[in-house]
Specification:
By secondary structure, the protein is α+β, with helices and mostly antiparallel strands. The strands form six sheets. The chain has a five-stranded antiparallel sheet with strand order 2-1-5-4-3, sandwiched between helices. It has a five-stranded antiparallel sheet with strand order 11-10-14-13-12.
């Protein structure tokens, strides 16, 4: 390179833009640098291809502009030729028309001169002399148009007709007194141009000289041959119809696309002096780039596409290589991390016994680093001096291929001089070609396992000592065999070293208990059908039995276990419980006496409950009977009324019996008889029973009930709760000594929501003096009462009934101006029968033993 090139390169390299680019490049990750390095050539190739396309497009546009300019120039030149030819013919005809107007020639001379003109100028088809009355005076050649002009005039009575183009041109020439051109198609093949030259003498119009010019001949003799050779030239009317000449072949879409423009080389211009009615149109034959230009373009395009494809393929190949390299690096790092994290030391030897590799764990075990160990030969520095001969022999066997598959135990010396136990495993080192290149040794520090093994042995000794000192018999025997695997001192004392004691205890302890049913003979062990692999996880079995040979009561516990050799065995532990059995016999006698006392107390509680709860129905029966007796004595009762009163009395007696049965069942802690019950029915029966007491105390009862769904309850118990609450409310009003107008009890039964579930709430409100705070704390306590004749079990029993139906009861005082004006008792019962039934099943399941 020249010095100038060096200076230019240094300038570019040290320019601010180059420095910023280098700084940005160094900040990118290697992956992004590779991606940019691969994409930059691809982008350059694409930009090159775009530049080539733009260059070809620019050149093509320049060429098209030159073609349009050439077409315009040639068409204008052809138009000037046609214009000059028409003007020359017009001048010749003007001289002839002047001779006709001055009457210098007659019809014969007109035909002679007209024939000369027609023969001299091939575009003239015919000449006609028409006077001012549209009569044909004379004609020469093919006078087609003059015939239509000199047709018979319209007669009176004929419909008006549309004048022809020739008649319009004739009229226009007469009015303007100027030459008039008109174009007319005579047939599908011949197109003629009319020239009307007015004839006038002074200011008087005397006719026209009508010249018929062939457009086809005008085209052939007026358009230069060099123009018609390069272009498709044609004479067209104002609507674009071809009158004379040739038209370029219609291009296909492919040719139009290759030409880049549909009408890029077309041009047309009106032909004067005719005007817009006659247009000269030209179109170039060549509309493509040409073979050489197109071939060069497609060659460049193909090379660009191939270069881009090769760059993309190279980029994809490089990316796959980078991915494989990245995966290889990750795998190498993973294996290196796995080797470094392994607690096992790895050492590689070549076939000559030289160390070629050690991992981190090996260096940590011995205390020497990799640089100090790699390349050494025996004796190695981690060999203890006292074991060097043995280790050298081992190494010789290892290099000779005499290796032990189970490994061997040696002592290894650390760098600080301390020793540790290790187990070494040796295996051949095979390369990728299947050839052995050395030996791989794995070393594991077994100092801690040896210490644990010693501790386990010591623990075994201690455990055996403890088992021998137990005051219980412990024995283990395999299933299906008379072999005794273990027996402690107490077992040997009771049954010596024979296994019959183990079999005796296990068979009697594992026997199924006798059942009271007739199918007890078909009872089997609870573990029958269980897989043997699940037996060790089964719960231990326990039984108490009397062994006549020993004269002792023994508590025998058996369970299955897996013995140290993998066999399934059964362990039996027998404990002498003779003293406990004697104590239990004495306790059973005392418990029998306690149960007798408990039954007496329960009977007393039931008697008190029956006496308290039967007071209302018995009072009702007494009132019904007294009423019937007094009315019978006064002969004021009919048979129908008597029958109704007796039925009510029978129902009260039946209710009393039902109350006794339900209370007795409830006191025995049995579940009530719950059935779907209508709230209205329970409410009406409770109110009917309670109104007897309320009328006796002159207390008015008002109740309100909404439309409620059925409840899954015991109707007798719920009615009893309502009766107790209503009766208590009436007695509270009497004790408060309220005047008659204030003696009222309200009972409301409404739906409510408690804890997100629907319930039915019963509320009893009285107008007494409320409940004192000291009494409120003991309100539901059994046998606690403030009444002189009360027993104190009413509210306790009501609360128990409500809670047995999974409801709740509460009481609160009502205040008016700070003074207690009454009390409100309320309780609610759940509406959802399924929830109640589920809870009932749960309660029954909790109460069922076992």
């Amino acid at each position: 390179m020249t010095p100038v090139s060096h200076r230019l390169l240094d300038f570019v390299r040290h320019s601010p833009a180059s420095l910023r680019l280098q700084q940005w490049w160094r900040q990118q990750s290697p992956n992004r640098q590779d991606r940019v390095a691969m994409l930059a050539p691809l982008i350059a190739v694409l930009l090159f291809f775009v530049a080539i396309v733009v260059a070809f497009g620019y050149l093509r546009l320049e060429e098209m502009e030159r073609e349009r300019e050439a077409v315009r120039r040639d068409v204008e030149y052809a138009q000037q030729r046609i214009r000059l030819r028409l003007l020359e013919r017009q001048e010749e005809l003007v001289r002839l028309s002047q001779s006709l107007a001055s009457e210098d020639i007659d019809t014969e001379e007109f035909r002679t001169q007209a024939g000369l003109l027609i023969n001299q100028y091939p575009e003239l088809q015919g000449l006609s002399w028409v006077d001012d009355r549209r009569r044909l005076r004379a004609s020469q050649g093919v006078a087609i148009l003059a015939q239509g002009l000199t047709a018979t005039e319209s007669r009176p009575g004929d419909l008006p007709r549309q004048p022809t183009d020739t008649e319009n041109a004739y009229t226009l020439a007469r009015e303007l007194r100027q030459p008039i051109y008109a174009q007319r198609n005579v047939s599908s093949e011949a197109a003629l141009l009319e020239l009307h030259l007015p004839l006038q003498t002074g200011r008087r119009f005397v006719g026209v000289l009508l010249a018929e010019i062939s457009l086809d001949a005008l085209y052939r003799f007026g358009v230069p041959s060099e123009v018609s050779a390069r272009y498709a030239v044609s004479l067209r009317d104002s609507r674009g119809g071809i009158l004379a000449g040739t038209a370029a072949p219609r291009r296909t879409h492919a040719v139009q696309w290759m030409a880049w423009a549909t009408h890029a080389n077309e041009y047309e211009i009106p032909v004067s002096p005719v005007g817009n009615g006659l247009v000269l149109h030209a179109q170039g034959y060549r509309a493509s780039l040409g073979l050489i230009g197109s071939g060069l373009f497609w060659l460049v395009a193909t090379l660009s596409v191939m270069t881009a494809w090769m760059l993309i393929a190279n980029w994809r190949h490089t990316r796959r290589r980078m991915q494989a390299q990245k995966a290889l690096v990750l795998e190498t790092n993973f294996r290196r991390a796995m080797e470094n994290s392994m607690p096992t030391g790895m050492r590689a030897l070549d076939l000559q016994g030289r160390i070629t590799y050690v991992n981190t764990a090996f260096c940590q075990m011995t205390g020497w680093n990799e640089g100090e160990l790699v390349g050494l030969t025996a004796p190695f520095p981690y060999w203890p001096e006292v074991d060097r001969d043995m280790l050298a022999a081992r190494l010789e066997d290892e290099l000779s291929g005499r290796v032990t598959s189970g490994g061997f135990q040696v002592r290894v010396k650390r760098k600080d001089g301390t020793l540790f136990d290790a187990r070494i495993y040796v295996s051949p080192l095979i390369d990728a070609r299947g050839l052995q290149t050395g030996w791989m040794t794995s070393m594991t520090d077994i100092t801690e396992p040896n210490r644990v093994r010693e501790q386990l042995y010591a623990s075994y000794e201690r455990f055996t000592t403890v088992l021998e000192a137990l005051d219980a018999s412990v024995s283990v025997a395999p299933l299906g065999s008379d072999e005794l695997l273990f027996a402690n001192k107490m077992y040997r004392l009771w049954f010596s070293d024979q296994s019959r004691g183990h079999v005796l205890l296990s068979s009697r302890a594992g026997a199924p208990p006798r059942a009271n049913s007739e199918d007890s003979q078909d009872a089997v062990d609870g573990l029958v059908g269980m897989p043997t692999s699940a037996l060790p996880d089964a719960e231990a079995e326990s039984a108490e039995l009397y062994v006549e040979e020993l004269g002792k009561w023994l508590e025998v516990r058996t369970r299955y276990l897996t013995w140290v050799d993998g066999r399934l065995a059964q362990m039996v532990i027998a404990t002498d419980i003779t003293p406990r059995r004697l104590a239990e016999a004495q306790a059973a006698a005392q418990a029998e006496r306690a149960q007798t006392a408990s039954r007496l107390i329960t009977m007393g509680e039931m008697a008190s409950s029956v006496a308290h709860e039967l007071n209302q129905p018995l009072t009702a029966i007494n009132n019904y009977c007294n009423g019937m007796v007094s009315r019978i004595k006064g002969r004021q009762i009919s048979e129908e009324d008597l029958l109704g009163a007796l039925e009510k009395t029978a129902r009260q007696a039946q209710r009393a019996g039902q109350i006794i049965q339900r209370i007795r069942a409830f006191v025995k802690r049995s579940e009530p008889n719950r059935t779907p019950s209508e709230v209205a029915t329970m409410l009406s029966e409770a109110v009917e029973l309670a109104e007897i007491e309320l009328r006796r105390y002159s207390v008015r009862l008002s109740y309100f009930m909404a439309d409620l769904p059925p409840l899954i309850v015991d109707p007798i118990l719920i009615e009893q709760v309502l009766v107790n609450l209503l009766k208590n409310a009436a007695e509270a009003i009497v004790q408060a000594q309220r005047p008659p107008q204030q003696r009222r009890v309200e009972l409301h039964v409404l739906p409510a929501m408690v804890e997100g579930r629907p319930v039915v709430e019963f509320t009893v409100t009285d107008t007494g003096r409320g409940i004192a705070p000291e009494i409120m704390a003991r309100l539901y306590e059994a046998f606690h009462t403030t009444k002189a004749e009360g027993m104190g079990i009413g509210l306790s029993l009501c609360r128990s009934i409500v809670e047995s139906h999974h409801g709740r009861m509460r009481a609160e005082n009502l205040y008016n101006n700070g003074e207690a004006s009454g009390c409100r008792f309320s309780f609610w019962l759940p509406v959802d029968g399924k929830s109640a039934a589920t809870a009932e099943l749960q309660v029954q399941a909790e109460k069922t033993p076992g």
